[in-house]
Design a protein that fits this description.
alpha/beta, 6 helices, binds NADPH dihydro-nicotinamide-adenine-dinucleotide phosphate, binds ligand LZUJQKHR
Amino acid sequence: MTRVLLAGFAGSMGQQVVKLVKEMPSFEITAGLAHHLKSNDPAEYGLPAEAKLYTSLAEIPADAADVWIDFTVPASVYQNVRYALENGYRPIVGTTGLTDEQESELTELAKEKGLGGLIAPNFGMSAVLLMKFAQEAAKYFPDVEIIEMHHEDKKDAPSGTALATAKLIAEVRKPHQTAPEASESLPGARGGDYQGIKLHAVRLPGYVAHEQVLFGGKGEALTIRQDSFDRSSFMSGVKVALEKVQELDSLYVGLENIL
Ligand SMILES: NC(=O)C1=CN([C@@H]2O[C@H](COP(=O)(O)OP(=O)(O)OC[C@H]3O[C@@H](n4cnc5c(N)ncnc54)[C@H](OP(=O)(O)O)[C@@H]3O)[C@@H](O)[C@H]2O)C=CC1
Ligand SMILES: O=C(O)C1=N[C@H](C(=O)O)C[C@H](O)C1
């Protein structure tokens, strides 16, 4: 039986993971980390009655679980994953907001501790494929902008997926700005900038998680789009990560690297 600690169990993604783990007979949630607890009863969150609930890292013993799943907030993810690795947990991280430097530090720490794990900005297959196709397309269409659209409760912008897409595209094209002379009569109108790739973040009720990558060429354009209409779309990736995490030899970044 693989024991799972779920950080962020009361959140939208946390509750999806609770359902997923219930359907996986070889896995059990034995502990949960929350920010605030509305109830001390694990059953209120769909967790097994014997699951231990914690509200701070310092309370969590090293043997509460084998695997640490994190769907919390950008402000806490680095500390959480650092704590997980220092205490022998294999991390599966969906929370966005880790910087490149933080990812490198955590990768180094995982190596020191001999622990494998995964950090994935997106566990949905449509997004993983979008990123792969976008990187391929950018070799032929270097002029590109990204529009991501999310629910109104999303705390960070741009999305981790949009930033990961821009990084993959930047690997295969020369950094340049399309239409560099265009001025902004309204500040921010051209969006955020990653090595000349413009990123636009839309936040609206009714949306879940969506991304479009727009490529423009001479007299033609290519648009690649993915839609997560429901958060259950991320669970196939989390399931794969759970099934593989015990055999991973290092901390991987990107679901595509363990498929
Ligand atoms: N990789 C992927 O495929 C996906 C990643 N995400 C990412 O996952 C993260 C969570 O998303 P989502 O579930 O929608 O967000 P929610 O706001 O619904 O859930 C976050 C949960 O984390 C809790 N929390 C906040 N701080 C801490 C902390 N220090 N320790 C433990 N728990 C904490 C919050 O508690 P409280 O409300 O009490 O503060 C809340 O219950 C985001 O970064 C999002 O971008 C989302 C979807 C897919
Ligand atoms: O906050 C979300 O909802 C999502 N966050 C991730 C991101 O920032 O890319 C993954 C997906 O877009 C949903």
